[in-house]
Task: inverse folding
């Protein structure tokens, strides 16, 4: 199954994974083929599950706070922070423009 440039772009932004070369695209296509096997499973009459432990009663425990007011200590571990929040790193790969990626899909 071929992967379109738009799908590739969307997946790269979601996963922060670089599929820039033909090997990366080939790996993605093989993963899709593997996952497509799930369509062959007959699920007629099978009700969706809320939990894999549906045969057990799951009890919620009380949410008792035993420690607290340590946000300043925790934020000392942050590499970068803004006000009272951790700053998540931006995508770890520079993503090429859609037009540039079209050439990578030609060979796959």
Result:
């Amino acid at each position: 199954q071929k992967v379109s440039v738009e799908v590739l772009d969307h997946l790269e932004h979601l996963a922060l994974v670089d599929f820039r070369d033909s090997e990366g695209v080939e790996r993605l296509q093989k993963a899709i083929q593997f996952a497509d096997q799930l369509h062959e499973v007959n699920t007629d009459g099978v009700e969706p599950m809320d939990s894999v432990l549906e045969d057990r009663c799951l009890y919620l425990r009380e949410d008792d706070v035993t420690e607290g007011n340590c946000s300043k200590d925790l934020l000392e571990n942050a590499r970068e922070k803004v006000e009272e929040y951790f700053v998540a790193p931006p995508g770890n790969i520079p993503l090429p423009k859609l037009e540039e990626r079209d050439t990578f899909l030609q060979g796959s």
Summary: The chain has a mean pLDDT of 78. DSSP finds four helices and two strands in the chain. Residues 5 and 73 are 45 Å apart (CA to CA). The radius of gyration is 22 Å.
